[in-house]
C-alpha cells in the first residue's frame, strides 16, 4: 500500500481480523490503484474507503457472516456490516486525523458499498468495482470457493455472468473478463 495510507491501515487492522479481510483489503487496494490509473476518481477518497469499507464485519459472528454474503445471502445481515462499518471507519479516520471534508464522502460510500445498486460518484464506482474484483482475483476466488464450498466449474461461470450487472467501469469489466479467461485456460 502507499505509505500515506499505511497509518490508516494500521489503525484499521484490528477490525480486519475476520473473514480474511486483511487479504481482501490488500487485493481491493491493488485493484483500486489499477482502476484509478484508467478511470476518474479521487484517490484521497478511494484509498481510505477501500481500507475501511468492510470494517463492520468484525461486529458479526463468523456464523452470521457466512449468511450475510456470497451467492445466497441475507440482505439485512449484509446491511449491518455497512452500518457498523461507517461507525468504525469514522472512528479510524478521526483517530488518524483524516480530512473531515473527505471523511464525509468516504463514510457515505461505505454506508452503501454493497447494498446501494447505483454509484454516487466516480470514487464510489471505483470502490464498488475494486470490492467486487476481489472475487475475480485468483486468491479471492480460492478464498470464496473454499468459504462457500463451490467448485471452480460452477463458480467461474457464475462470476462470468455477473460482470455486467456487478461492475460499473469498463476497466473493471475488462479486468474481470481477463481473470475469468485466465481461470478457464487453467481448467483446460
Instruction: Calculate the terminal CA-CA distance, rounded to whole Å.
Output: 34 Å
Strand content: under 5%
Principal-axes shape call: globular
* Number of extended strands: 0
**Which stretches are poorly predicted, pLDDT < 50 over at least 5 residues?**
none
Q: Supply the CATH architecture.
A: Orthogonal Bundle
The helix content, as a percent range, equals over 70%
Topology pattern, helix = H, strand = E? HHHHHHHHHHH
Number of domains: 1
> What is the rounded Rg?
16 Å
Largest sheet: none
Q: What is CATH's topology name? A: Hypothetical protein af1432
CATH class: Mainly Alpha
In short:
With about 190 residues, the protein is mainly α. The protein is about 70% helix and about 0% strand. The longest helix is centred in the middle third of the chain and has 21 residues, at about 75-95.
Keywords for this entry:
188 residues, mainly alpha, Hypothetical protein af1432, 71% helix, globular
What is the secondary structure topology, with strand pairs?
Layout lengths: L2 H10 L8 H18 L4 H10 L9 H7 L6 H21 L4 H12 L10 H12 L4 H11 L3 H10 L1 H4 L3 H18 L1
Helix pairs in contact: 1-3, 2-3, 2-7, 3-6, 3-7, 4-5, 5-6, 9-11
Q: What does it look like?
A:
It is a single chain. With 188 residues, this protein is mostly helical. It has a single domain, classed as Hypothetical protein af1432, CATH 1.10.3210.10. Helices cover 71% and strands 0% of the residues. It has 11 helices and no strands. The longest helix is centred in the middle third of the chain and has 21 residues, at 75-95. It starts with a helix and ends with a helix.
Amino acid at each position: 500500500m502507499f505509505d500515506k495510507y499505511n497509518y490508516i491501515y494500521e489503525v484499521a487492522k484490528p477490525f480486519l481480523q475476520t473473514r480474511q479481510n486483511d487479504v481482501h483489503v490488500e487485493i481491493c487496494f491493488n485493484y483500486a490503484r489499477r482502476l484509478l490509473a484508467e478511470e476518474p476518481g479521487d484517490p484521497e477518497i478511494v484509498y481510505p474507503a477501500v481500507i475501511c469499507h468492510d470494517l463492520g464485519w468484525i461486529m458479526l459472528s463468523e456464523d452470521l457472516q457466512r449468511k450475510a454474503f456470497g451467492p445466497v445471502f441475507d440482505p439485512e445481515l449484509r446491511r449491518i456490516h455497512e452500518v457498523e462499518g461507517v461507525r468504525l471507519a469514522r472512528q479510524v479516520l478521526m483517530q488518524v486525523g483524516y480530512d473531515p471534508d473527505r471523511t464525509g464522502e468516504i463514510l457515505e460510500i461505505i454506508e452503501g458499498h454493497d447494498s446501494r445498486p447505483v454509484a454516487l460518484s466516480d470514487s464510489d464506482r471505483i470502490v464498488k468495482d475494486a470490492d467486487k474484483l476481489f472475487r475475480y482475483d485468483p486468491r479471492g476466488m480460492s478464498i470464496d470457493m473454499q468459504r462457500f464450498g463451490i467448485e471452480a466449474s460452477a463458480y467461474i461461470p457464475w462470476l462470468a455472468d455477473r460482470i455486467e450487472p456487478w461492475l460499473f467501469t469498463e476497466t473493471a469489466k475488462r479486468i474481470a473478463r481477463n481473470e475469468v479467461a485466465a481461470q478457464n485456460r487453467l481448467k483446460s
